[in-house]
Design a protein that fits this description.
The chain is built from 12 helices and 10 strands. By secondary structure, it is α/β, with parallel strands linked by helices. It has a single domain, classed as Aldolase class I (TIM Barrel, Alpha-Beta Barrel). Bound molecules: indole-3-glycerol phosphate.
Amino acid sequence: MILSKIIQHKKQELKILQQTLDVCDMARQIKRLPPTRNFQAAIRLPGCVSLIAEIKQASPVKGNLSRNFNHLELAGSYSRHGAAAISILTETEFFGGRLSYLEEVRQACDLPLLRKDFIIDTLQLYQSRLAGADAVLLIAAVLSDHKLRQLLSLAARLNLQALVEVHTPAELERALRAGAAVIGINNRCLQTFVTDLNTTDRLLSLLNRPDITVVSASGISSREHMQFLRRRGVHAALVGEALVTAADTGCKIKELLEGGRRLTDV
Ligand SMILES: O=P(O)(O)OC[C@@H](O)[C@@H](O)c1c[nH]c2ccccc12
């Protein structure tokens, strides 16, 4: 199974990090950083589906997604064309990401940045904050209740917001119980990598909480998909592949944002 392979690899990486990083020193450095940007406020705008545009070089199933991938060019194009926030994959082995992509985009761009990785340890939260993240992804499927609560509470102390990703009703319930404020419904099953937009529909019908900010993620690639999400009241769409593989990124963003706006329904 891909997910368990990824987590196994992450645990190995983490062992090395634990030997090389000093949490006390990191905490001291974090105190001197400027405040983070408000990711949740940026993606929750009335009457439209916001776009969280992802910088993603590869996927475990499809391999490299783009031949002339350039994270800084993508970030520039995303912000020029109206993305509300940027998601940056930092996982290297399976997604071709790098932590340095996050650091470099932070220097070049003012939008809120989400670190997309497989976060399973508090050390990665310190690391995320230092690298310039405003928010981090926490995947309910790979975290125990205890771990999820622990990571949520440290994230809050570090002024990082958390996007808690769920794929099943049980994970949704766990995320809510742990106190998640921003829920990401992943349309892709991380065990099989099959994508189905109806996952968002199914889980939304169980989520009767106007206070929660809802993001739909994966497999979103067209105006029609965005219209579907808009009608269901989703706040934001997280899009990777459709943007990094588009012949013209700006055009694709325009199409998606138009679909997410109320006007296009008539
Ligand atoms: O490229 P897509 O189909 O637009 O999907 C983006 C994003 O949702 C996907 O990259 C993702 C969702 N959850 C994750 C967890 C880890 C790594 C990646 C992901």
